[in-house]
Amino acid sequence: MSPETVTRSAWTPDLLGEGYEQRTLELGPDPDGEGDLAAVLVRRTVRPGERVTGAVLYVHGFSDYFFQTDLADHLAARGLAFLAIDLSKSGRARRPGQTAHHTTTLERYDAQLDAALDVVAEDHGDVPVVVLAHSTGGLVTPLWLDRRRRAGRTAPVAGLALNSPWFDLQGKPVMRGPLTWAMRALGPLRPFRALDLPEGTYGHTLHTSGAGEWDYDLELKPMAGFPVTVGWLNAVRRGHARLHRGLDVGVPSLVLRSDKTHFSRTYSEASDRADTVLDVRQIARWSGCLGAETTVVPVADARHDVFLSLAEPRRAAYAALDAWLDRHSLGRPPG
Question: Where is the Serine aminopeptidase S33 domain (predicted)?
């Protein structure tokens, strides 16, 4: 699949309401046999008086979709047009009968992301693009950009900002190895088999039905997350292995993460001030594998999505992002 074979619909109103539109990217038959694939682009419409000097392409994580309008507004204030993509089988793009987020290779997302860059160019011309990605998106996008660089296609991407990227499997090394080899053996045989994994507290920290501030769609982002499939985890572990061998994304990178991890099945105040999903030590360890210039900023008391943290760490996360954008002349300082 190439971006040239992607069929694009017209822009229509998005579920986020006024000021947001969506566009479907039809991708053709799913190689994993679950009907036809699609991705959905969402754009924050440029408001009267806003001047565009660049753009952002936002890529979500697992059990996630784009709903972070505060983030979009913040970047628009810097002159950065904001577009987000719900990747195939995720969020808005998941179709009836499809297994949420399932893929057997992360490379399948390349054409979707390339097509999204083409849409950015259609809307805004030859502007620099910052790729901003969260969690699993923070693994997908460096792999994609490394492949683009090796193909001589770095432009128009000018920067990569990662929000708690998933750079390794959680848990002790003695467990990670056997699990990885089990996934490699089972992946081709039973790719849709769901793993029985413990439920965490992350959803409870975010959603208004728990202790959080955000009223997002629980059909698209369930409190307990979607089941993890063997085929998907095998694809992720292969992505991890490729990252660990060293990439070169070809552009400056920013890695934002919490300063601590707190794994627990029971919610407490500590759940609100730590990454309850990933081991931040692994993020720190593997950030040097991105190649080029990489800036790593631990954000004190941040959650897994640093931009959905409590007010004080959230402000710190935005300040770190702004400082990095200023340093690389990406967008203009607000005000």
Answer: 52-259
